[in-house]
Design a protein that fits this description.
- The protein is α+β, with helices and mostly antiparallel strands.
- It has one domain.
- The chain has helices at residues 12-16, 19-29, 48-61, 67-79, 98-107, 146-153, 175-182; strands at residues 34-37, 41-45, 86-93, 115-119, 122-125, 127-128, 137-143, 158-164, 167-173.
- The strands form two sheets. It has a five-stranded antiparallel β-sheet with strand order 1-2-3-7-6. Strands 5-4-8-9 form a four-stranded antiparallel β-sheet.
- Helix 3 runs antiparallel to helix 4.
Length: 187
């Protein structure tokens, strides 16, 4: 199954018709996929729908509606979802001031390689996107083995850990968050 079918991507009037209600619905549901890690790191698990919406917003902002360009952008965004046995997430450095953000990013160099998911007593280290720049948002993929996938689908406890010299944090994934995150695995 295609992770982000091009036929699902809306542009122009087709997107505008539902844009505000879709954004409100996704925003309301985001809390179930969001984990605070320490004072200034936030991990948000992505879904096919959140990635599609980000793509549609980009296409809208850049006024792209040419089929070939839409297909190219769709392929690039689909890669953010990884493979079917992977969970996608974005790690944000949550610092509003641009100068403070730049300083914190320097302190946190390599943090995208220091994040792991533990489920069912087994740990997997996130695979970062090597193309991420210094924007403060890092795309991560957690490759799950069959036991980890089964544990998430069985709604077993899970946690996220950051083990970086400038930040050490662990967050327990609540039962409702496990349910929201594992929904992507059922697709």
């Amino acid at each position: 199954m295609e992770r982000l079918p091009a036929g699902e991507v809306r542009t122009g009037p087709a997107y505008e018709a539902d844009r505000l209600s879709d954004r409100a619905r996704l925003s309301a549901a985001a809390g179930e996929r969001r984990l605070a890690l320490g004072t200034d790191l936030v991990l948000v698990f992505e879904t096919r729908e959140t990635v599609r919406m980000a793509l549609e917003e980009l296409l809208r902002a850049e006024r792209i509606d040419d089929g070939e360009r839409v297909a190219g952008e769709t392929a690039a965004f689909a890669a953010l979802l990884g493979e079917e046995h992977e969970l996608a997430a974005t790690l944000y450095v949550d610092v509003a001031d641009p100068v403070a953000l730049a300083e914190r990013l320097t302190e946190l160099a390599g943090v995208d390689q220091a994040v792991s998911l533990e489920v069912g007593g087994r740990r997997t280290v996130a695979r970062p996107d090597p193309g991420d720049s210094g924007s403060g948002a890092f795309h991560l993929l957690f490759a799950l083995d069959s036991d980890q996938r089964a544990a998430l689908l069985a709604e077993l406890p899970a946690s996220i850990r950051v083990e970086h010299p400038a930040c050490r944090a662990t967050a327990t994934v609540s039962a409702s968050q496990v349910l929201a995150i594992s929904a992507e695995l059922k697709r």
